[in-house]
Amino acid sequence: MFARRSNHTESFSKTRTANSVSKSKRSFRDNTASSRRNEKIKRVEASSLHGTDLNSPIVTLVVGIEARLFACHESILSSSPFFAAICRGQYLESSTKRVDLPEEIPEVFSSVLEYLYKGDYYPRLLHNKRKNIWELEDAANNTPEPTVFNPEAQQHILKDTVVYCTAERYGLDGLKRLALRKQGLQSGVQCSTILCSARYAYSHTPDNDSKLRAHYLALIIRSRSTFKRSGTMQMEMETGGRLFFDLFVALVNHMDDM
């Protein structure tokens, strides 16, 4: 009787020990798998920096009329064909690694660098899962002023428009798409700001641009009841330019489709 009990106890003990070892092995494997997943995530996050080397030399960028200083890894900066050519060419002194950009707007250039490192710029584009819509970070409360001051024209224009045009010049198509999408989420912008921004867009994009220019034409047509009462709109139309010829064509096409 006791022998059987002893065997039963031994058997139970062995089973429990085996289960414990099995769980321990599974736990070890799970921890190892989790560690590998974390390592993989870190590698993916690192590769999001365009697969670049963060040990590359630092380039100093002197931006705007106030000569604000920015720093960027040469490998990150070279993600832009514009800067890749500069880094390879004679415009970058090999000893100082310095690039002067006096015509750029510092606030906009800061957003470009943020995009190069992170794939987005503030305010970030976020997906609201509850409403299933895309919106800007802090859209409910502290969304920053959507305009920047353009010293060239002495006017405030939409920041995302300037980012788009800068991305066009730097050969950053992904940033162009992002800036255009963000601009479509702006609201409550004054007619004068929209018209100034539209003129800037026409002055800083090629004639074959089919995105930003079309965005402004569609915006003005959708809000035509507001723009027709705008004194700024009247003055801009009297000044004329390619913008208003394209607007006329777009309006005719809109009427034909009605």
Explained architecture:
By secondary structure, the chain is an alpha+beta fold. It has helices at about 1-45, 75, 80-90, 105-120, 160-170, 175-185, 190-205, 210-220, 225, 230-240, 240-255; strands spanning about 60-65, 70-75, 100, 125-130, 135, 145-150, 155-160. Strands 2-1-3 form a 3-stranded mixed beta sheet. A two-stranded antiparallel ribbon has the order 4-5. A two-stranded antiparallel ribbon has the order 6-7. A hairpin with a 4-residue loop joins strand 6 and strand 7 (about 155-160). The longest helix has about 45 residues, at about 1-45. The termini are far apart. The model is unreliable at about 1-50 (pLDDT under 50).
Keywords:
alpha+beta, two-stranded antiparallel ribbon, globular, disordered N terminus, 258 residues
List the helices and strands and how they pair.
Layout: H1 2-47, E1 58-63, E2 68-73, H2 74-77, H3 81-88, E3 98-101, H4 106-118, E4 125-128, E5 133-136, E6 147-150, E7 155-158, H5 159-170, H6 173-183, H7 191-203, H8 212-222, H9 224-227, H10 231-239, H11 242-257
Parallel strand pairs: 1-3
Antiparallel strand pairs: 1-2, 4-5, 6-7
Helix pairs in contact: 4-5, 5-6, 8-11
